[in-house]
Amino acid sequence: MKKRATKRERRLRSLSLSRLPLFLCVPSPSEAMGALAVDCANNPLGVVRSAFEDAVARGRDPTTLGNTDWGVADIFRRFLFEQDGLSKVPLLDTANLHLVQPNSLVKFRGMVQDMFDNEFYVGAFKDGSTWRTNKFMDVSTFSMASASDMQIWDRRLLYCVPIPGQNTWIGESSLRTDSPMCCTRDPSIQREKRERESNSDFDPSHPETSEISRAKKLCENGSCSQQQQQVKDTAVNGRMDLHLETNLFSCLVKMYDEPNCDLKLNDVYEFIGIFTFNPELVSYTNGNDDFADDLCESVSTQFPPSKVPRIHCIISRKLMVQDFISAPIENTSNVIRNMRDSLLGYFTSILGGDRLSANFLLMHLMSQVHARVESVAVGKLSLNLTGFTKESADIFGSNLQSAIQNLLPFSQIMQLTVEYLNTSSLGPKKNYNINRLMTGSLQLARGTHLTIDETGLLPGPLNAVGVNNAKLLKDLLELQKVEYDFQYYKLEMEADVQVLVISTGKSNIAPADLVIPFHPTEAASCSNVTSTELQAWRWYLTTMRSLPHAIDPAIQKTIEDDMVAARQAERTLGPDDFSRWLTMARLMSISYGERSLTLEQWQMVMEMERLRKERLQ
Q1: What is the mean pLDDT of the chain?
Q2: What would the CATH number be for the domain defined by 333-528?
Q3: Is the pTM of this model over 0.90?
């Protein structure tokens, strides 16, 4: 006999499904996973709104949700890292800016160039009997004219620029994905706009010119939305805040709920968040919406949303140089030695057979600051190759710079002249009239390589600007610090920049740790290098430099005896020379993939030093 339904069961059946709370409508696991992937990528605002409504329905106090997670961070983590969602999130750059749908999930990589005071905004308000949130939004979806209660929250603002000197071989696929994401935050919500057509045809592999032509064809055929047309016009006509030397642009990143995140100026980060670039947003802020004034602070005046895209950050991770090298290679001793030998041979060929200079160049490119003792940056090894003329610099110097660009993720070149020193801004300076830190040529990310070409430097007077710039260069090479001018005070910021100086004679403006005359014995040879070799060398340079290293007590006694003997033979030797020898010994050891110094490697360093001094004489 069929069991008769109870009164409670009959009442539940009579209810309309649409009247049930959202969190009670549970689809099957497969349906939920598919819907989640679509919503997180294309409608993250809906995901956040549902989580907020769910939290309120479960009894969470809306007034206390400003600095807490509603469970949304876990939803996006599952989508990105458990459901392969990270590969579905486009990397935002100028090539696809006008094709990416607003309010969708994007990746953006850049250097933190400036930080601003926290921005205050109305985070939550009561619309009649319903609580709504503006958290993670630029402009409210709902009118707040009749709001009975408002909660003021704040968010952190970062101005992020393209990584200075990022080389063109770095693409989306080159970035490692096995390093952990850090500083997880609540997801960002932005104002949902009117319904848009959903044919973005995203393809990040095309160059910018072909993407713009493609977008024009789409719009001419009536296949793009009104906002996509406005974004395309903005990008094409150059009204966006672009750094034209790269295929990237600046972004205003808005951060939420990250009290434990150690984020500093010049750090390189990858941000995953919700993208807003609204050329028509100005029309909203100029309207009669009272809420617009609450959200548009002074920073929005300096970086209008019609020119500077916004990223409301969900998850971020700090990137180091090694994160841009994606090739996992077996690091056995034989493989490392083969890589070292082949790379040293490559350097020797582009330096015209000068193997001694090639050995010092290899050490230089493996150096980095791994400790600081008072004012000493331990691990740095700047290099000055002398004996260049303008003509030889055009040949050997160009080949050398090309090799560095192909091997290292970030590299810059500075053509040093008296006019450049007297007129350029090398150090960042605060402009309080617009409340912005104006960048300088020496505001560089950690791990950047800087080549200073002095072959065009002729005698001439330096003005006050030139003298200050010369001091900045000297401090960078000697202390690995750059002075930031905040007008009312000066602040020294720590740096980690590899500096190579190419000059006719020993540089006085950029005093390097090592000075070696360049002695080519043959014409420069640029043999064809395969992509496999380049990939291996990139991995080698970035991985070996991070190896832990120690000196065994037995070897340490030999080193001490050699230093005492050297001091007795040459009284001009001092602590700086001995410190440099120890740095060279460490670099020689790790160049072979070794974690401890051997006697043979120490003797190789001493022999290189002897040959270098012979050239100097």
Answers
A1: 79
A2: 3.40.50.300
A3: no
